Amino acid sequence: MDGIHYVDVGEGSEGQPVSLFVHGVGTSSHLWRNVIAELRDERRCVAIDLPLHGGSAPRDDLSLPALAEAVEELCEHLGLSEVDLVANDTGGAVAQVFAVRHRERLRTLTLTNCDVHTNLPPEAFRSTVELAAKGELAALVAAVLDWPDLLADTALGAGYERIDDPAALVEAYLRPIFARPDGGRAFERLLTSLDAKDLVAIEPQLTVLTVPTLVVWGTGDVFFDVSWARWLRDTIPGVREIVEIEGGRLFFPDERADELVPHLRRFWAAQP
């Protein structure tokens, strides 16, 4: 497959849907390692590295629709005809586009804190996107890659309640991007390619999306307020419930996986 890396572990029982996980900007499939560790003995778990992230190569088109098609390519490559899709951050925006384009692939959809409708980029991230638009972000990040504690206090720290090993996160998330030739420039291009118009454009399709959907939202997120979870509930008829993770930040699926997984199990088990 064209430059797409993914994690594929566990088997599950015959006929059981595959759990497919999608991360957001500046992270990778590594975000889902703790969720997968809890599920791998009972389910086949697949986690994509979106283009430019983790082990996946960059692409010319890094817009939301193009990223959604990368997920479709992986499904086609692996023959995944019915998946329980779980997404976070920008991956949640990708998942919304994927859901309206490839409804036939989905058994269920779970959205955690993510870009919704006009909230792209979120206000707390807007200055970072502006640096990317000026061509100033790549050099800035590259200069501090060897100072993981500094990154943990700034870029990554806002998404976590606590980071015990910032160096490990930098190596898993940022180094694979910025160690590539022109990876920094590609990252700037990615940030400026993500456009709220692509989410606004699919609102009519979301209003008729009946895929059983679970929304799990950390309430301590500075990027994605819980009001956006309610927007999803009020817009997507398939939403069954909103679960609030008290105090959870953007990357709670990583650091509080033990709270997310029981809700996934319960939701999946309730579906025919």
Please give the structural blueprint.
Elements: E1 6-12, E2 18-22, H1 33-39, E3 43-48, H2 64-78, E4 83-89, H3 90-101, E5 106-114, H4 126-133, H5 137-144, H6 148-153, H7 166-178, H8 183-193, H9 196-200, H10 203-206, E6 213-218, H11 227-235, E7 239-245, H12 252-255, H13 257-269
Parallel strand pairs: 2-3, 2-4, 4-5, 5-6, 6-7
Antiparallel strand pairs: 1-3
Tell me what the structure shows.
By secondary structure, the chain is of the alpha/beta class. The chain has one domain: Alpha/Beta hydrolase fold, catalytic domain (Rossmann fold). 42% of the residues lie in helices and 17% in strands. It has a 7-stranded mixed sheet with strand order 1-3-2-4-5-6-7, with helices on both faces. Strand 6 (213-218), helix 11 (227-235) and strand 7 (239-245) form a beta-alpha-beta unit. Helix 1 crosses helix 13, helix 4 packs across helix 8 (183-193) and helix 5 (137-144) crosses helix 8. The model has no long low-confidence stretch (mean pLDDT 96).
Strand order in space, largest sheet: 1-3-2-4-5-6-7
State the CATH superfamily name. Alpha/Beta hydrolase fold, catalytic domain
- In N-to-C order, the SSE pattern is EEHEHEHEHHHHHHHEHEHH
Globally, the shape reads globular
Looking at CATH, which topology would you report?
Answer: Rossmann fold
Portion in helices: 40-55%
Keywords: Hydrolase
InterPro entries: AB_hydrolase_1, AB_hydrolase_fold, AB_hydrolase_sf
GO molecular function, one term: hydrolase activity
Domain AB hydrolase-1: 20-254
